[in-house]
Amino acid sequence: MRAPSVTDDRLIARLVPGRCHTQVIHRMNITTRLADAEIIIIDGAMGTELQRRDVPLNFEIWSAAALLSHPHLVQEIHVDYIRAGAEIQIAATYNTAPHVINPSSFDTTSRELTATALQLVREGIDVAEPAHPVWIAGSISTTVESRRKEMLDISMLRDSFTEHAENLAEQGCDLLMLEMMLTHDFAMDIDFQCEIAAIAKRTGLPVWAGIAVKMAESGTLHLQDGSEDSGEALRTGIEAILAEGVDVAGIMHSEVGATLPALDLLERYWLGPVAVYPNSGRYKRPHWYFDSLIEPEKFAAAAMQWVQRDVKAIGGCCGLGPEHIAALSKALGRMS
Length: 336
Hints:
The chain is of the alpha/beta class. The chain has a single domain, classed as Homocysteine-binding-like domain (TIM Barrel, Alpha-Beta Barrel), CATH 3.20.20.330. The protein has helices spanning about 30-35, 45-50, 65-70, 70-85, 100, 110-130, 155-170, 190-200, 230-240, 260-265, 295-310, 320-330; strands at about 10-15, 20-25, 40, 90, 135-140, 175-180, 205-210, 215, 220-225, 250-255, 275-280, 280-285, 285-290, 315. The strands form 4 sheets. An 8-stranded parallel beta sheet has the order 3-14-11-10-7-6-5-4. Strands 1-2 form a two-stranded antiparallel sheet. Strand 6, helix 8 (about 190-200) and strand 7 form a beta-alpha-beta unit.
């Protein structure tokens, strides 16, 4: 069951701290916003940005640990992305699903951490006082973290993702962002990963499906954590997950250089709105390495190629921080 929608077309009035008047911002439905000619700017990474600010990442629940240990930094990162021009803020719920949190050694629950993450986004919006509308996305991912070595029970996963999606909706998210879809075939069956989209759609919220790919030296696209011969599994999975009626299909959590070929692949199966949300650098659990990071200006230049492909929303994932989003905003003419 979901809370009343906060995405209806309307004027939102909020009292700005320290001022004697009410600031009024037009807040349209995110689906209506997608129909605009202007590109929607998504935020950048949360987990790797926390690491860059000296927050240790955890083997069990990765960046979700920061919701307990460094909530002020989570809020600060949201503020930085909003001030860089981001219109969509993805809450730090990537790792807060019940199947990740509840079996962990942390003295908290999935529901508690999810509520904390949403509160920190709202506080960040209040601190940043943006002149532009900001929508809040609830993150749902295929992450399994410390449970990577076991095939998880599908019935348990179905209950976990259902609870997580319903909790995000009850907390007032404007949309649900499915991250790392079709990344791997360990721990979580590929067919079930497609079912996550159907679970999310039952909340009544818009659902954006972020598909992760990897490009081999031969140019072949395959599952990001799969072998080069998993290309067929990727194609079958893309067709299946998009058939669940998602609202936006995205190439996410993939290298910048793999994005254009991935868009070619996606066009075979999808005619609707497209989002791009790439990463840069390399990962060795539980840390991200920034030694091969794309420069902000080069990221923005690549983004202009995606704009030419009629991509509707652009942001950045692992390795890409506020400076990358600011460069994107500048390239789009939103900032001087």
